[in-house]
Amino acid sequence: MLKKFEVSTTRRVEFVDITSLVRQTVAESGVLDGICVVYVPHTTCGITINEHADPDVVADIVNKLEELAPRNGRYAHIEGNSDAHIKASLVGSSQTIIIQGGKLLLGIWQGVFLCEFDGPRKRNVFIKVIAG
Amino acid sequence: MLKKFEVSTTRRVEFVDITSLVRQTVAESGVLDGICVVYVPHTTCGITINEHADPDVVADIVNKLEELAPRNGRYAHIEGNSDAHIKASLVGSSQTIIIQGGKLLLGIWQGVFLCEFDGPRKRNVFIKVIAG
Amino acid sequence: MLKKFEVSTTRRVEFVDITSLVRQTVAESGVLDGICVVYVPHTTCGITINEHADPDVVADIVNKLEELAPRNGRYAHIEGNSDAHIKASLVGSSQTIIIQGGKLLLGIWQGVFLCEFDGPRKRNVFIKVIAG
């Protein structure tokens, strides 16, 4: 089963919690055991798994990525968003999660985030469920 | 096939070689061709694949991650482990490895590591084998 | 279906666009729906997905990784390529891409790159297609 969702981001850099979209897709698929791949078809955007209880955790990750690859650094790419491309490769375009007994095997503190690095924009997320 | 292992870490930051757990799970599964997903359900812990011959390689990776996201940096999250969350997102919560002829397609120098960033603790690792 | 390709790199650090190898493997497999895992069995090499239209994007990613983990930094590993091992763990050994209707679900700007961090060398890339 493959589903596509549109996510609207509201700031240049923003982590959007999409855990409920992933859970909902796995539930709809009826798959009891398998894996789930969450993928963004964008080059200035990523997917990560991290704590979604305290929003300060995501804020600290965002700040550190900005420190490592500042928006206003010296880059060759003329569009002015090289920092976003770099952050996307550091975080990765997808995450794979295990499904057991019809449920995502996320840890109690884990959430799935779409990582916007060059918003605000409308972004697509693909969620693929594979039985096995 | 899905297996869960408990790994005890002994230091705050430590990469534990879990290659043998992964090999053993693939062997037990009887799957000849497919993929294997190694996943940690924690937000201050990751999975990476790198050299497991010379322990200095892992030491250099650990030191660099500490340099990029120092434990005592300025963070918002009050639990004092933001560096560990950041490192987890840089390294990733899982790795996917190909299975061919009943064996993991790891390179000769490659090992699979559980990356502890906020230990010592007892950690869970899930290993999922998918035929295909 | 599993295919192995050899990629020759020509510089110490170089991102080689292997998107056509991935597309060709998916087409040959005849798989209409599923996933594709692109994997390097090396510890000083990675796989990333990023923009393959403007080569300046890749140049900026390469430069930033060199800045974060300089070749001539202070490392313990005596082979002198610790920076390459670090970069490999930051970028990751594999990427997973969704297949829909027989095609890779890559975004319009996305390409798949083999990231050479310690070349020039002959490198292997494995591409595994799983139906589902």
From TrEMBL, chains A, B, C:
InterPro entries, alphabetized: UPF0047_YjbQ-like (IPR001602), YjbQ-like_sf (IPR035917)
One Pfam family cited in the UniProt record for this chain: YjbQ
Similarity comment text for this entry: Belongs to the UPF0047 family.
Protein name, entry field: YjbQ family protein
